[in-house]
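From: lab user (bench 3)
To: helpdesk
Subject: output format question, protein + adenosine-5'-triphosphate

Hello, I'm new to running complex predictions and I'm not sure whether the block I got back is the full result or only part of it. Here's what I submitted:
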Amino acid sequence: MIKQTLMCPNCKNKVTIQGVPGEKISITCPKCNNLGVFTFPQEKTKDKSYMIKVNNLTKIYDGLKAVDNVSFKINRGEIFGFLGPNGAGKTTTIQAILGLIQVNSGEIKINGLSISKKGKEAKKHVGYLPEKVAFYDNLTALQNLNFYAEMKNASKDECKPLIHEFGLSEAVDKKVGKFSKGMIQRLGMARAVLGNPTILILDEPSGGLDPRGVVLIREKIREMRDKGATIFVSSHILSEIQEVCDRVGIINNGVLVAKDSVSELSTKLNLKPVISVELEKMLDAVAESVKKVKGVEKVEIKGKNIDIICEPKTKSKVIVAIEKAGGNIVNLKTKEPSLEEVFMRYTGG
Ligand SMILES: Nc1ncnc2c1ncn2[C@@H]1O[C@H](COP(=O)(O)OP(=O)(O)OP(=O)(O)O)[C@@H](O)[C@H]1O
Ligand SMILES: [Mg+2]
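Helpdesk reply: Thanks, we reran it on our side. This is the complete output you should expect:
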């Protein structure tokens, strides 16, 4: 219920009214009988557009700044990739977001709620895959998930289908103590998405997984995003992150060295795409012609193939130049700059 004091535009008399957010009411001024309509404002949620907000986070371990004054915001409904080499501070940042460690300074909010002040409420709709996934060894996969379903207030009916979805059908009644690393990781993912969380925090989800498992998780991430979830995923396996993420943050030695969309990072770093053209027959005139196109940086000939590094907008001019020089194009592929290249430039690898 909201209380609001209004002033009659006619006689300036003040009236106090009560209503619920979004409610539209007709009011008659008790003094001059002037008739008006008022709509109560929608309830304000703090930091409405951001699902996760990290402000000036610092965590020191034994005199070492594991996370050094890191700030970033994750928009509602986006997939944010958090990248960095081993020991960069990814897990520490995640643990801080979830209020699992005491930080030296900084403010963290999940869906507008402070993790230090309202941790339980803030984490209510968060699914988490920790770096080191742990379960009760002497309980089966199903018993474990049932236990977490109860803790999360999720329906136990979800457990079996999730175990199947993550390729563990054969192991549903097997004790987790006998699981391989990849199987535990798959069960960890099932636990993270249990109860359909609106925020998913995944610390190295592909750790220990076979290629099929990696694809399974990538698809699940996309599916959760399509359902409206916000996803924060850390990794150092760049090619995988590159495929699913809307934006990335790159952390090195505790310092956030970049945050942007993959394509914007590439532009800023002047990383250019490679156009790979297969010709029916290689002609000297083709290479000469392509080299003369403005915006072409490098030309490399390998048999019937020609690789051209150039500005993205130069691509069509390059094709015209090849055809003008008598080249007959059989196949054409464009390889966008990889996050690997972006990562190497930022972390000095
Ligand atoms: N509990 C701890 N006690 C002491 N130092 C720690 C602790 N946890 C992390 N550190 C240190 O903090 C730094 C960041 O570690 P963190 O685990 O956050 O890195 P990471 O980016 O997750 O690395 P990885 O890719 O290997 O998982 C490292 O130097 C690490 O040794
Ligand atoms: Mg880690």
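A quick orientation on your result: Residues 219 and 244 are 9 Å apart (CA to CA). Let us know if anything else is unclear.
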